[in-house]
Design brief:
Distance between the termini: 26 Å
Structural class: mainly alpha
Largest sheet: 2 strands, antiparallel
Number of helices: 5
Helix content: 55-70%
Mean pLDDT: 91
Strand content: 5-15%
Number of strands: 2
Shape: elongated
Order of helices and strands: HHHEEHH
Strand order of the largest sheet: 1-2
């Protein structure tokens, strides 16, 4: 897991950490049951306060994305797969909205868009 902190970002550091871990969970890079770095280790690696990493982990736990076990650490939650799927669907819908808007701006009809999507989908299936 590679977390990058930007001092130029408008987001506080804990939120940058939370969002990057959340994205890794939602896109499948981090899988249910996989352990996360300890709060202290992550703080040391990122050269930030333990309080900051603790807040990021607490936020992830509130969202049901990770589970923390005293004395054992924090792990990607396996209990909330429906929530993770819902979050991924929301991201997917946002991408489709972008594609739809761009298609309209380019003058691509719905039929052309569907045909192109069908072709890309089939190509992807063949490459598996």
């Amino acid at each position: 897991m590679n977390i990058l902190i930007s001092n130029a970002s408008a987001d506080p550091i804990y939120l940058q950490i939370k969002n990057q871990i959340k994205a890794s969970i939602l896109n499948g890079e981090l899988t249910p049951g996989q352990s996360l770095p300890s709060i202290r280790q992550l703080a040391k690696d990122l050269q930030i306060s333990v309080i900051t990493t603790k807040r990021a982990y607490e936020e992830l736990e509130k969202e049901g994305l990770i589970d923390s076990v005293v004395g054992k650490g924090s792990f990607v939650s396996g209990a909330n797969q429906a929530f993770i799927r819902e979050q991924r669907l929301r991201q997917w819908e946002e991408k489709l909205i972008e594609v739809t808007q761009e298609s309209k701006a380019l003058g691509i009809s719905l039929a052309e868009l569907i045909a192109h999507l069908r072709m890309l989908y089939q190509e992807e299936e063949e490459n598996r």
